Protein: beta-glucosidase
Amino acid sequence: MNEKAKGAFLWGSATAAYQCEGAWQEDGKGISNWDAFCHSDKNVVNPVNADVSCDYYHHYEEDIKMLANGGQNAYRFSIAWTRIIPDGIGAVNEAGVAFYNRVIDCCLGHGVEPLVTMYHYDLPQALFERGGWENRETCEAYAAYAKTCFERFGDRVHYWATINEPNYETQCCYAAGNYPPNVQDLGRRWRAMYHLLLGSAMAVAEFRAGGYQGMIGLVNDSYSIETLVDDESYRKAAHCADLFYNRCVNDTCVLGEPPRDFVEKLVADGYDLSYVLDGDDEILRSGTVDYLGVNAYLRYLVKPYTQGETHLKMSNSGKKGDRVEAVVKNWFELDRDESIPTNDWDMEIYPKGLYNLLMALHDLYPDTPFIITENGIGYHEHLDELGNVHDPYRIEFQSQHIAWMREAMREGVDVRGYFVWSTMDVYSWINGYAKRYGLVYIDYDNGNKRIPKDSYYWYKGFISSLE
Ligand code: BGP
Structure:
């Protein structure tokens, strides 16, 4: 582990390969499901792609240098599976390995600790066409790919994340249907999520078998689940929502098995669980994580289920009034408090939710360290006449979340790091380029020029104030 970050709290920011790299067909890279989707006639909401995006593939040195100059000692990024093994299974593409070697060495050269995610939504299209995560073959392929990552980068990378967001990804892919394969079928969602978790456990086993140094975790989007009414039916709805969003993933990777009442509910709902095979319980138990990565964006207010079919809807238009909705038949419904502010994508701004979430996670998993692997807020943003971006709303959002995280730490929760989403503006899944999260603005129309926002300088000052 590099000296500067060794043992220190990780203060950083994050990106993901498909969202920022561009260079979609360069140096032997294979096609991913997101490359294919964004070029297909299914990409109708904001029909753009990340073929180029902010062209990080050719700007990574500038981005990492800027991150380091901003006082950050850690950078979370993901590896595109298609750069390492273009069709998901088979020979290693040495040019892809060389690219990530350059990225990792650049981080270390600037005293920045890399936290590397091995899968962040972009699946080799060849595997996607054979069923993707619904097909158990993808677990085996993923574990082999992870082993390659450990072998090639494990001498220098000491923080690994197996999978990004088994909850949100499968919700979007198989329930809301806005991500490929654009399906609305919870049964298929549970199957894909199960295989993501199984694949993650297999990768953890490879990591341990190889005797690599460092920590390996899984990143999930977790939510503080709250109600406006405190009675038995609301508490029951909250419990169901906690199973649906959080514990189905978190219990499985932290404790090594899914919650019993979650499985009972799936059986009661009539889902076919024949994809669970003999011996899987042992794989899950021996593949538990060293830390849980927490992508913290929202709290969810929930209420009891009343009527209607299961229905999940995300807000991808960026227009106020386009609402996120969730009704899960016999489980719960999303509620709302109109007095809480939201951004243009109907995301609640509720910083205390991070404290509530961390306290709840600590109650469930008292021996597990947490890393806040993403926390951020998306806005429509433009350069002003002087060519700057003033983003006081982001400074307020991040500083309040950090304050609540530190309060949870004071009360005994073991948090090891905090990463702003995102390092610079990147492609936002389905929302295109209108939704900006970066500490650094990307002028997409002007050669992808990088322009630090006020929040970049605020974050730098905040980190240095701690020393
Ligand atoms: C998380 C993803 C990120 C990022 C972020 C913001 O769920 O891990 O990749 O995109 O959310 O989400 P969005 O871009 O959809 O607003």
Summary: Residues 186-209 form the longest helix (24 residues). Residues 1-5 have pLDDT under 50 and may be disordered. The pocket of 6-O-phosphono-beta-D-galactopyranose is lined by residues 16, 19, 164-165, 168, 221, 295, 374, 378, 421, 428-429, 431, 435 (CB under 6 Å). The CA atoms of residues 327 and 333 lie 4 Å apart.
